[in-house]
Specification:
Length: 203
Amino acid sequence: MQKFYSSPVQLSLALLTPLLLVAGLAQSQPADWEIDSEHFSIAFEAGHVGYQKQLGLFLEGSGSFHYDPDAREFTAGRVEIQAGSIFTNLIARDNHLRGRDFLNTRRNPVIVFEATDYVPGNDAVPGTLAGNLTLLGQTHPVVLEVTINKQAKYPFGHRRETLGISAHTMITRSQWGMDYGVADNLVGDEVTLRFEFEAFRLL
């Protein structure tokens, strides 16, 4: 009977191959990502009497999502914004925006975006992220354009694998029942929302 002998190198490769396959499968599995609150900018702009576009921020927000960066597959995501954290650098205007004419923050303290579907982009075209935006107690679909700026291990601090993301969309606020100033064009109906953030991979 003929005998076959394996060299130590061949034997090592034979033993390592299934381990590498398992490792590759494990690496391609979706992971949980958490938005870094210290690097989360939530901005908006809306027209004001046709003269200019008023800029503002929401200072408090949080979020997480389930995403496989290797396969570029997105499963779920949720962002919560504290409506009362609105800031436009004028106390009187901020208080008006928190009131019943606009955000009505006493009854609706949290703005929620729940993502449902992601289509990856490329170097020429941004990706799209579809989901539902809940504002003033009403929920309607929105679509954001998304660009993944960078994916790498963070160079300091937490040193976790981190995604850097830019996203934006435009909504018609009257669709959510926020129609103050729309009829006489005092405040624009179209509001641009912009999100800039870093998200680190959870262990």
